[in-house]
Design goal:
6-stranded antiparallel sheet; alpha+beta; 267 residues; 5 helices; binds manganese (II) ion; single chain; binds NADP nicotinamide-adenine-dinucleotide phosphate
């Protein structure tokens, strides 16, 4: 069985050791290690933490190949195995003894004049002002105007991202088998000038959120953060956020259970 494997790894010492060991083991069973990522690989291995996994997904544009994460000393929510489980992983992989967990993404579409920009998040998209300014946003759901938001920002999380920044903001943990987006206000001001929900709301995957920045003030820049990557836009007409068809497939083994993983990381 000549499988083509690409390894994406961070710079840590334990990662380097794990990568050396893995390469030896894969070489022994005749797998080909592809040094430069290309679309016709059979398997993508990410060695590091969740941050490394997210970096790989953005660098390789959300590949459709099966992905296995090896956790080297981080929180490791996406990462399925520990470095001491390489033999189990190889056995299970070569015996087709795994399932693929499909993780959908949230997409943010920016319209500015006749220009369009698009960014995806596996965890989330955050809309905020640059620096420490507050942001003023008119928010509609499914085309109906809902609220005039003012505060630090609004975070829109996927179920997979519900355990990340979303959770730190008091958002709910969502089982990734549900296709919903969670919209969480960050430090909303509720005054006679602005009024918005104070808790998270959940939207079904076929409904989108439209956001028009309130440009009546002197600040016209909006900052979007997707999985920790920042971009800034001036003079935006509209932002639309929704569930995307773009998804990735994480390899999971027999003993994977989302809620057990949550418990092991948080409780
Ligand atoms: P980072 O600032 O180094 O990571 C923040 C922490 O979040 C790390 O411990 C990371 O795990 C963990 N993490 C990432 N995705 C997760 C998930 N789906 N479930 C549970 N924990 C998760 O940045 P990063 O490593 O590049 O990760 C980017 C993510 O950081 C963003 O998508 C955002 O969700 C999160 N973040 C959180 C806060 C906050 O909680 N206040 C603030 C900013 C950003 P590893 O240690 O395994 O990398
Ligand atoms: Mn990290």
């Amino acid at each position: 069985m000549n499988k083509r494997v690409h390894i994406f790894a961070n710079e840590s010492e334990s990662t380097k050791q794990t990568e050396i060991q893995l390469k030896k083991k894969l070489d022994k069973i005749g797998f080909e290690i592809v040094p430069n990522y290309c679309d016709d690989i059979d398997l993508l291995v990410c060695i590091g933490g969740d941050g490394t996994f997210l970096e790989a997904m953005h660098r390789y544009n959300f590949p459709s190949v099966p992905i296995i994460g090896i956790n080297t000393g981080h929180l490791g929510f996406f990462q399925e195995i520990a470095p001491n489980m390489l033999d189990d992983f190889i056995f299970n992989y070569t015996h087709d003894n795994y399932t693929l967990q499909k993780l959908g993404t949230v997409v943010v579409k920016v319209k500015r004049g006749d220009e369009f920009f698009e960014h995806h998040g596996i965890n989330e998209v955050l809309i905020k002002a640059p620096l420490a300014y507050s942001v003023h946003l008119n928010i509609s759901i499914g085309g109906s105007f809902i609220e005039r938001f003012s505060g630090d920002g609004v975070l829109i999380a996927t179920p997979a991202g519900s355990t990340a920044h979303n959770y730190s903001l008091g958002g709910s943990i969502v089982d990734p088998r549900l296709e919903v987006l969670q919209v969480t206000p960050i430090a909303p001001m509720n005054t006679t000038a602005y009024r918005s929900f104070t808790s998270s709301i959940l939207l079904p995957s076929d409904l989108s959120l439209q956001v028009t920045p309130d440009m009546t003030d002197s600040r016209k820049t909006i900052c979007l953060v997707y999985d920790g990557f920042n971009v800034e836009y001036d003079d935006i007409d509209e932002i639309e956020i929704g569930f995307s068809d773009v998804s990735v497939n994480l390899m999971r083994f027999d003993n994977y259970d989302f809620w057990r993983k949550v418990k092991s990381k948080f409780l």
